[in-house]
Amino acid sequence: MNEHLTVVDHPLVQHKLTMMRETDTPTAVFRQLLREISHLLAYEVTRSLPVTMKAIETPLCEMDAPVIEGRKLALVSILRAGNGLLDGLLELIPQARVGFVGLYRDEETLQPVQYYFKVPTQLDERLTIVVDPMLATGNSSVAAIDLVKEAGATDIRFLCLLAAPEGVARMKEAHPDVPIVTASLDSHLNEKGYIVPGLGDAGDRMYGTK
Ligand code: URA
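That is the input. Now the predicted structure with uracil docked in place:
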């Protein structure tokens, strides 16, 4: 994967994203749509996942056929909204190892504050996909990727649902080696750091906390 930013403009993704953006979409539907979109985005973000060959028997003959080595993949969710994408990815790749980065955004400085960090061992041998639905200022994503790099990861991708140009620029500056996959590059951030047009607070919309 060479491009720094890939926008998945497939009609199925765009249709589901439109439903998620709508204010009146209920929590349960929002969560279900996020799960469905995460399957479609997974297709793109795992495009170059290495496969190994396995000897199998079809009803007609023996053959060497490709299989994914799930143990070579680490999914790292930025809590709490990252878990919505994580759940869908795990449905597709249940063998993947999973890590969590707990960061909350200080509402005044918009800077990330770390409260939890637990990731799989041997990250240097794994493709590491860091997930968070919203790439807004980029502060949390940059901090999370700093942490997974410190833990040994070298082959990293970032998966989000929506990205703001400000966040993409910040990521490109801090982590030019980390490709980003998203469903949309939105217009801008507002004065509170929300993505416009966006979908509001992803965590609140997923869990009905507002
Ligand atoms: N986090 C969110 O949940 N929404 C935004 O628009 C920006 C950051």
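Residues 11 and 17 are 10 Å apart (CA to CA).
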